[in-house]
Write a structure and sequence with these properties.
globular, alpha/beta, 31% helix, 12 helices, nine-stranded mixed beta sheet
Length: 439
């Protein structure tokens, strides 16, 4: 039985030094390339390039391998990338597929077990133990956030509350009645829970046992994280996952909160220039590319995630030497181009969250007026300041000034009353691009 005082759930992997990590990755990458020859997709690709497992002698040799894209998954829909017979698979997860074929990821029982281990490792790393009560407010079904955290929390041995998304009053009742100590939720929904707590007269510090939040699934700034921690009196740890890799459990923050630890016994991490596809130096922002090296049903080689991030380091005071990446800055395909300037929603959020007068719900609307592209930023105001018109005028001017300094454009800023903007139980919609109406 695992020593509950240990900082590591899987010390044999979590405490590897960089040389040991490299050796393990080379062995697992060789095995993965060999296993991928069972996939018609990769077999064809490798044969065209003349690649064999023996060509992999270091992790740098991964650059000999081809990239894989979301379009490849759609083109081979539904099972064209499988590396095992379908009868060996026990689960599939799929994207919504609103713009064509969905992406489908297959799992064997071994894959499910390893997924549970990875999520359990993440939760253990931030101090959760079998005595904790874990409430999961993610959607279940095809969305991986529900079942991924469910199995990981169960593997760790916690009492789990599969509350699923929505029904905020019930979520709060469960938190109070079941003694919930940890919650998984998207950041925008955490703020919604706090708003309803305020309406119900619930003080999270006095009336609940909450201590840990796992937040992810939508880009958020450090300012947003700090706001969440202050609102609920908890520690909020950033989680990263994506269905193509398995779901949650790909990376997680440790107690140091100094970047996401990507589990390099499961994945090889690359950061490349989205245009040239060449590696960028540590510290520079580029596109995250991931290769699975511990997957059975459907390994993915050099998968282009479109997420933008940077390397922060490869050591940590927590004792783990798995690569640390910055939280996702956004996706390359989420970037807004306005009058020739590249802008990400998280840049705007970073500015807004600095003002105590503002709530966390905001909406960016892009329009074309008289052949000019314009940006309007609407953000809700705390009730305490809603009627102080002079202060709101001054506040608006200061927000515009700081946004102009950040994004090099002057947006229209509208401060609106609480509850004016749309609320959602899932990922928040931050950008409403109406320019297509005029195209």
């Amino acid at each position: 039985m695992q020593d509950i005082k240990s900082e590591y759930l899987h010390p044999e992997f979590e405490t590897l030094d960089r040389e040991q990590i490299e050796a393990l990755q080379v062995k697992r990458l060789q095995d993965t390339v060999r296993h991928c020859m069972n996939s018609e997709f990769y077999k064809t690709k490798f044969n065209e390039l003349g690649i064999s497992p023996e060509d992999i002698k270091s992790t740098a040799d991964i650059r000999k391998l081809p990239f894989t894209t979301k379009q490849d998954l759609r083109d081979t829909y539904p099972f064209g990338m499988a590396s095992v017979p379908l009868e060996k698979c026990v689960r599939l997860h799929s994207s919504s597929g609103t713009t064509g074929n969905p992406t489908v990821i297959l799992h064997t029982q071994k894959d499910i077990d390893e997924w549970a281990n990875a999520v359990a490792r993440c939760l253990w790393m931030v101090g959760l133990r079998p005595s904790d009560v874990f409430q999961n407010s993610s959607g279940y079904g095809m969305f991986t956030g529900g079942l991924g955290f469910q199995y990981g929390a169960e593997r760790l041995g916690m009492l789990t509350v599969p509350a699923a998304a929505g029904n905020t009053l019930r979520q709060i009742k469960f938190i109070k009645d079941f003694g919930t100590t940890a919650i998984h939720a998207v950041p925008s929904y955490v703020t919604r829970i706090k708003e309803v707590m305020d309406q119900q007269g619930v003080d999270p510090r006095k009336d609940t046992k909450l201590k840990v939040l796992a937040i992810g699934a939508e880009p958020h700034s450090e300012e947003q994280r700090k706001r969440i921690e202050e609102m609920l009196g908890v520690k909020a740890y950033n989680s990263f996952g994506m269905s193509e890799m398995c779901g949650p459990g790909v990376a997680f923050e440790c107690k140091e909160q100094n970047g996401l630890h990507f589990w390099e016994d499961y994945y090889i991490v690359e950061i490349v220039d989205p245009e040239t596809l060449e590696p960028v130096p540590d510290g520079e922002i580029g596109e995250l590319v991931l290769t699975t090296i511990n997957r059975e049903a459907m390994p993915l080689i050099r998968y282009r995630t479109r997420d933008l991030t940077r390397v922060l380091g490869r050591t940590c005071p927590c004792g783990r030497n798995h690569i640390r990446l910055d939280r996702m800055k956004g996706r390359s395909d989420d970037m807004m181009v306005l009058r020739g300037v590249n802008i990400f929603p998280i840049q705007i959020e970073k500015i807004l969250m600095q003002f105590k007068e503002l709530l966390t719900n905001y909406l960016i609307t892009l329009t074309t007026d008289n052949d000019n592209d314009n940006m309007t930023v609407e953000v809700e105001v705390d009730d305490l300041y809603a009627n102080d018109n002079l202060h709101l005028q001054q506040l608006t001017k200061e927000i515009i000034r700081q946004l102009k300094d950040e994004i090099l454009l002057t947006p229209i800023v509208k401060l609106v009353a609480r509850g004016t903007l749309p609320q959602t139980d899932g990922k928040a919609v931050r950008v409403n691009d109406l320019r297509k109406v005029y195209s």
